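Before relying on records like the one below, remember that each one covers exactly one chain. Contacts with other chains, cofactors or solvent are not represented anywhere in the record.
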Amino acid sequence: MTANRVELQRIMASLQSSGLTVEAVEDGALIQHGESRVALFAENDPQGGVIVRLHLDLELYVEEDSLPDILMGMNLMNQGLDYGALNLDPVEPEEVDPDEEAPLLFAVLGRSVLWLRDLSAGELERLTEHLRRFEAEVTGAVESTLHGPKGISA
């Protein structure tokens, strides 16, 4: 069940007024924050309030044979994240050649969920702050791991 379109419009307007670039997409919004683009989806909580889901595509891809090392590294990074978590999503191959077996590929995504009691100014401000911290925390953790002294290899 998706949130009422009016509620999503209120969330988008609030984010725009806080200085973020917001674009409507099919069933949610795309928020531009610096170099990052965070997808936002909202749905009504049957018990009241609104559940907001944030997805950050990090444009990192992992092949199946690297999964054990990557999963261990992601688990360690997730322990230090307060506003989100790193997840793997399988990537559908664009072109499938029936004669060749393509390796399974996974995208590394940042994800976060926030429950808003209502769409009051205070709750919308909390969402804006959560969004900023989520994006900064996830990209910072990945960048420091990739470019740090020990780095990870995928």
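The beta strands are 21-25, 28-33, 36-44, 50-63, 85-91, 105-116.
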